[in-house]
Amino acid sequence: MKKLRSYLQLIRIPQWSKNLFIFLPAFFALKLLQQNVLYNLGLTFLGFSFLASAVYVFNDMLDIESDKIHPKKRNRPLASGAVTKKEGIFLIVLLLILASVVFVILNNTVVMVIAAVYLFQNILYTVKLKHISLLDIMLIATGFVLRILIGGEATDTQLSHWIIVMTLVLALFLALAKRRDDVASYVETGQKARKNIQGYNLEFLNVAITMMATAVVVCYVMYCTSPEILANFGESTYLTSFWVILGVLRYLQLTFVWRISGSPTTVLLENRFLQFILLGWIVSFFLIIYLKV
What we know:
With 293 residues, the chain is mainly α. 72% of the residues lie in helices and 0% in strands. The protein has 14 helices and no strands. α3 runs antiparallel to α6, α3 (35-62) packs parallel to α7 (109-127) and α9 (161-189) packs antiparallel against α10.
């Protein structure tokens, strides 16, 4: 049972919450309640999650030595020795097989191509590109854009430029906050958990995070007041910007005041206030675009 818990920790099931971005195109296109759409989204989510978990295991295998000196990552299964490298390789193969089976069942060539691009990009990222400052956060953000693209393709939904831009700037905002946590840890301990730390410092990251936070809010407000949104959803859509602004401010507070900005997924899963904000946004948007409140 202890070994099983280590396996589950290694494949990072809580990180699957990132893949909920796959549902956003259908949500905004008013397709989320259609049975065939939910079936395709469910398969896509499952296949992509298996694929992402294989990437996580591969990343942890290459990062064993650096994770051992990180105050939090040293407790990861491979870094702590709870899972061996051979077991890690077995998990990677198993997860890739499961992902392939799911995508074959889905039977969508473009979805398979996007999944392959995601896998190839993340292999390059893990092996080399994550050590290059700025390029590392851009590739992280691109991974979220690929989630949006695969969700749109799986449901035959045409994506607007707004959803792609907002996904990109939001992902950059979260990635920069995570890098700030790494730099802050380096300043306190003197130990580099990442090779690209020298490409960042707190002053730069503070400015960049503020810039991206502003971009998130501005893009969302422009989205809510754009002609296409006003025509499709009505004038009440702008009211949902309350939750977006509050969410950005809360994350900035956690980053700068409480100094909690490591894994965005962990932050969300552990912070009740952020969960309340996210739920408020989902409910308000659902009421406006689905129930025409």
